[in-house]
């Protein structure tokens, strides 16, 4: 495995990139190519590779702007977390956009049919409402902490990340997942 050598003046390059120097930002992002493409391969949502690289550079710029301690190891640690978080945010935003398009499509269909929906559409929305009501009944079986954990987990975070966000241990996270499995009688897998 070939490891890139970090330039001796990396802190100066980081400061230049923070101040908007495009060449310095490119120099730093080239050091992170492996991480950038590894995170790209990890995601379920596939965006255009050039768009992903632009997003990764944007995250790098934001990470540099957020740093208080200006050292290479600090940037590496912070950037890795920020890039992973950004990929999850893109996924969540895509999910929200899909849901809003569905609402717009329903309104367009109503307008096109003189305020009425087709029978198939009515059945679809009735089934969707029934599922939502059923889920609310099932969720009422969970404690508030279990609901918080489940909300994070189904948003795409891993068990360990959910536990960390709720300021708990990994073992607590796995216990929560198990309790939810028992209460809901379902198998949950952490991919």
Q: Quick recap of the structure?
A:
With 191 residues, this protein is mostly helical. 74% of the residues lie in helices and 0% in strands.
Task: Provide a descriptive summary of the structure in words.
By secondary structure, the chain is mostly helical. Helices cover 74% and strands 0% of the residues. It has helices at 10-18, 22-31, 33-42, 49-66, 72-112, 119-139, 144-154, 159-165, 170-184. α3 (33-42) runs parallel beside α5 and α7 (144-154) packs across α9. The model has no long low-confidence stretch (mean pLDDT 76).
Structural features:
mainly alpha, 74% helix, 0% strand
Topology:
Layout lengths: L9 H9 L3 H10 L1 H10 L6 H18 L5 H41 L6 H21 L4 H11 L4 H7 L4 H15 L7
Helix pairs in contact: 1-2, 1-4, 3-5, 4-5, 7-9, 8-9
User: Could you state the order of secondary-structure elements as H and E?
Assistant: HHHHHHHHH
Q: DSSP helix count?
A: 9
Helical content stands at over 70%
Integer-rounded radius of gyration: 22 Å
**Distance linking N and C termini:** 27 Å
Largest sheet: none
The overall pLDDT average reads 76
**Which percent band covers the strand fraction?**
under 5%
Query: In one word, what is the shape?
Result: flat
Structural class: mainly alpha
Q: Describe the oligomeric state of these chains in a short phrase.
A: single chain
Q: Unreliable segments (pLDDT under 50, ≥5 consecutive)?
A: none
How many E strands?
Answer: 0
């Amino acid at each position: 495995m070939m490891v890139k050598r970090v330039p001796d003046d990396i802190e100066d390059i980081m400061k230049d990139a923070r101040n908007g120097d495009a060449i310095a930002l490119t120099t730093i992002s080239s050091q992170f190519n492996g991480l950038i493409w590894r995170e790209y391969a990890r995601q379920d949502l596939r965006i255009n590779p050039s768009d992903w690289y632009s997003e990764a550079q944007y995250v790098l710029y934001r990470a540099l702007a957020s740093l208080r301690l200006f050292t290479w190891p600090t940037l590496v640690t912070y950037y890795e977390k920020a890039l992973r978080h950004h990929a999850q945010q893109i996924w969540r935003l895509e999910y929200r956009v899909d849901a809003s398009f569905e609402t717009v499509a329903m309104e367009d269909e109503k307008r096109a049919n003189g305020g009425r929906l087709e029978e198939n559409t009515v059945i679809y929305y009735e089934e969707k409402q029934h599922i939502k009501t059923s889920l609310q009944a099932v969720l009422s079986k969970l404690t508030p902490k279990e609901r918080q954990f489940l909300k994070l987990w189904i948003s795409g975070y891993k068990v360990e990340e959910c536990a960390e966000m709720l300021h708990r241990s990994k073992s607590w996270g796995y216990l929560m997942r198990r309790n939810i499995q028992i209460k809901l009688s379902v198998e949950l897998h952490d991919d």
